[in-house]
Amino acid sequence: MEQKTVYEMIGGADTIGDLVDAFYARVGAHPGLIPLFPEDLTPVRNRQFKFLTQLFGGPRLYSDLYGAPMLRAKHLPHPITPQRAVEWLECMRGAMDEIGLQGPVRDFMYERLQQTAYHMVNSED
C-alpha cells in the first residue's frame, strides 16, 4: 500500500498556495511582524511556498533553487523573539483556519511549524 505525503494529503500545490497567501495577508497586517519583512512580500511569499512544499513532502523546490534551507542561519539577521514566534504561529493558525485545514494532518503540520518557529528565536522579548 502506497503512503501519501502530507503534501499530497492536503491537496498539493493549490493548498500550500492558499495557506501561504492567507498567512502573508495576516503577516502584512500584523504590527509586531511586518517590521521584519520587506515592503513587497511577494518574494518572501514565493520562498515560503517552496519551503513548505518541500517540508511537507512535495517537490524539492526550495533546495533546488536556494540550496539547503539552513533556516536559523538565514534568520539570524532578524530579531526573532519568543513573542514574535508566538505571533508568527498565530498568523499560521489563522491561515490554517481560513483555508479549512483540519484534523490530524493539520495537527502534524502545526507541530512541525511550531518546532521551526521556536528554533528561529534569536533575541529576547
From TrEMBL:
Signal peptide positions on this chain: none
Keywords assigned by UniProt, alphabetized: Heme, Iron, Metal-binding, Transport
Gene Ontology molecular function, alphabetical: heme binding; metal ion binding; oxygen binding; oxygen carrier activity
Pfam assignment, any one: Bac_globin
Domain of life: Bacteria
Family statement drawn from the similarity comment of this UniProt entry: Belongs to the truncated hemoglobin family. Group II subfamily.
Name listed for the protein in its UniProt record: Globin
Top-level taxonomy: Bacteria, Bacillati, Bacillota, Bacilli, Bacillales
